[in-house]
Amino acid sequence: MNTQSEAVSTIMSLLCRGFYSTAFQPIVDTGTKVSVGYESLLRGPEGTLLADPGRLFNEVGYLPEDTRLTLDRACIDSAVRTGKNLPDKTLIFINIMGATMVRMTSMLNEFLSLLGELEIDPSRIVFEVSETTNRELTEHISAVLHLLQRAGIRVALDDIGVRSPYLYHLLYLEPEFIKLDRIFVKGIDRDSRKQDLVHCMTNMAKTMGARLIAEGIETEKEFDVMKALGVPLSQGYFLGRPQPAKQWQLAGAVRCPGSAA
């Protein structure tokens, strides 16, 4: 097992040598299956620490905060540099740590300059803030959001429903998109209670001025339920696996195949 110092040394070495990349998974209009955006996802060499981003960002104490911030900024930079190759006008969803979001006050001009250099309209950027962000940090993030919104950048609240503060986050962050955790999607075609819950969440999101995104759709039956429930946006292996941006550019912003292949 890696010690923290060994993990930090390995990760910084991989980052410095550029041994990481970004893949993109489509987010589609549920009614038409047309891609409206893509979520950026860290990819590292198989067998290395960068191959397990969930552990790097979510395991408490595995990495020191400054290393996680460095990694997060590298992921954001890669997402926009490679996201330039996505179909025109589609949205680029980028996961961002709450701590990184708070620091956007000092990073914003640099980030906007990068977008200008890449000729990416800021309105195409959607920062996904994890629901695991604590309440105290949420209040700080809320203050930063006004700067982002004036620049045209949008916000999504990720993985709602897995922790209790999600209503608090909805109130203070006023996200334009709400991503429903996959636990509520898996097997929904066989679970009427999940169907009732997703129906309520769809209506609540609409009332709050946001659009619900159902994550983790892996079967046609699950997708059909989302369509019947009026969920506006959908994401999952059934609609497309993560691929490099250039692969999606070749395909264009077209109807997804609706296949896990």
Give structural notes.
With 261 residues, the chain is of the alpha/beta class. The chain has helices at 4-16, 53-58, 65-83, 98-102, 104-118, 135-151, 166-173, 192-207, 220-229, 245-251, and strands at residues 21-29, 35-43, 91-96, 125-130, 154-160, 177-180, 211-214, 233-235. Helix 8 links the parallel strand 6 (177-180) and strand 7 (211-214). Helix 6 packs parallel to helix 7 (166-173). The mean pLDDT is 88.
Helix-strand layout with pairing:
Layout: H1 4-16, E1 21-29, E2 35-43, H2 53-58, H3 65-83, E3 91-96, H4 98-102, H5 104-118, E4 125-130, H6 135-151, E5 154-160, H7 166-173, E6 177-180, H8 192-207, E7 211-214, H9 220-229, E8 233-235, H10 245-251
Helix pairs in contact: 5-6, 6-7
Main beta-sheet annotation: 8 strands, mixed, barrel
Q: How many helices does DSSP assign?
A: 10
Record the strand order, biggest sheet: 1-2-3-4-5-6-7-8
Percent range for β-strand residues: 15-25%
Give the end-to-end Cα distance, rounded to a whole number of Å: 35 Å
Low-confidence stretches: none
Structural features:
alpha/beta; 44% helix; 8-stranded mixed barrel; single chain; 261 residues; 8 strands
